[in-house]
Amino acid sequence: MNTRDRLIVALDVDSPEKAIHLTKLLSPYVGAFKVGMELFNSVGPEIIYTLKKLGANIFVDLKLHDIPNTVARASRVLTSHGADILNVHAAGGKEMMQSAAQAVNKEVLDKGLTRPLVVAVTVLTSISARAFKEEIGFAGEIEDKVVNWAKLAQAAGLDGVVASPQEIRAIRQACGPEFVIITPGIRPSGGAVHDQKRVTTPGEAIAAGATYIVVGRPITENSDPVQAARNIVSEMN
Ligand SMILES: O=C(O)c1cc(=O)[nH]c(=O)n1[C@@H]1O[C@H](COP(=O)(O)O)[C@@H](O)[C@H]1O
């Protein structure tokens, strides 16, 4: 895979115009675009069709987390809309993840679609070690929880996980070279961290074994998004 194909830009904007503008501008320099809660809920599923018509690969990031039947049905719908990647929460459990994977596989077979990657969100990159223990009340270390959830996702038939760059090495070791690791919480050297807590630079994430990195504000809020994206790709090398 080319280095630039490993860069996914988070389109955290509220209108089709802004999303289309960024997609046209950045398509030559990045591998895919992420449609998350803000854009999806502002525009609706048609934004997936609009951006795919521009030739973009789309990660539909709705972080599904519900009972197995509900998540399976939603996963089927997102597959039919043409998602290239979709995600569910590992905290929903093995049966929920299995149901999602089976529903996606069935939809792909029934409609002759390209199979999306189905990945599990582990511990959000915005959660600090303190919040993990004291607020949410988990025992143990974040890394152990992430690795356990990654193994559970793999056993459930998922393609990979979304995890912070700080856990990539441990996941790679536990789940092998083919397992997809998508990594937000990426900040160029010296960049503002915002609400992210477990971060590294693009170069560190790739060196640790990330398959894809996800970058939003450092690109989309930059006065020159193209230059920001190109700088990140060169930091990935
Ligand atoms: O699933 C995700 O994409 C995700 C998981 C996670 O743990 N942390 C995380 O930041 N994300 C998403 O990745 C993007 C990061 O955006 P920036 O912090 O602006 O680079 C946002 O769209 C988040 O919704």
Automatic annotation (TrEMBL):
One Pfam assignment: OMPdecase
NCBIfam families on file: PRK00230.1, pyrF
Catalytic activity, reaction form: orotidine 5'-phosphate + H(+) = UMP + CO2
Function comment: Catalyzes the decarboxylation of orotidine 5'-monophosphate (OMP) to uridine 5'-monophosphate (UMP).
GO biological process assignments: 'de novo' pyrimidine nucleobase biosynthetic process; 'de novo' UMP biosynthetic process
EC number: 4.1.1.23
UniProt source species: Desulfofarcimen acetoxidans (strain ATCC 49208 / DSM 771 / KCTC 5769 / VKM B-1644 / 5575) (Desulfotomaculum acetoxidans)
Gene from which the chain derives: pyrF
Protein name, UniProt field: Orotidine 5'-phosphate decarboxylase
